Amino acid sequence: MVDVPNCPKCNSEYTYEDGSLFVCPECAYEWNLLEKETDNSEDKKIFKDANGNILNDGDSVTVIKDLKVKGSSLVVKIGTKVKNIRLVEGDHDIDCKIDGIGAMQLKSEFVKKI
């Protein structure tokens, strides 16, 4: 007989096996032990600059191309240094503040690590 684990959600001991899933009758939670083991290995996205260097939160970068700021007449010039970047998921990978412009979102393909 398979040793059935307690429910990971409510810690109930009355769980049972239903095919390849374990089921908790008290909170109706269903899980697969194999999925739980693979969830422990976090798959974080790796952000790289234009040269292939790995970027981390808090890094300083330099803009490698003139970038027009959408909705205004401002331009972020080539060579602009950006300090203390924050990496985020989405279309634009980098949240930052640029002196003279303010809060911006940049794509990692247009910067290089200092």
From TrEMBL:
Ranges of residues in domain Protein YjdM N-terminal:
4-32
Coiled-coil annotation reads none
Per UniProt, residues of the Protein YjdM C-terminal domain are 48-113
The family database entries (SUPFAM superfamilies) matched by this protein are listed as:
Prokaryotic SH3-related domain (SSF82057), Zinc beta-ribbon (SSF57783)
Pfam families for this protein: YjdM, Zn_Ribbon_YjdM
Q: Which family does it belong to?
A: Belongs to the YjdM family.
Output the NCBIfam families linked to this UniProt entry. Answer: phnA
- The protein in question is named Protein YjdM
Provide the species name: Metabacillus sediminilitoris
Q: What is the lineage of its organism?
A: Bacteria, Bacillati, Bacillota, Bacilli, Bacillales
